[in-house]
Design a protein that fits this description.
This protein is mainly alpha-helical. It has one helix at 2-16.
């Protein structure tokens, strides 16, 4: 549900942040 979407979004964001 929403929690899963948020979890994936946060994880993806955290993984993309250091990639910058």
């Amino acid at each position: 549900g929403v929690l899963a979407m948020i979890a994936v979004f946060l994880a993806y964001c955290l993984l993309q942040a250091p990639s910058t």
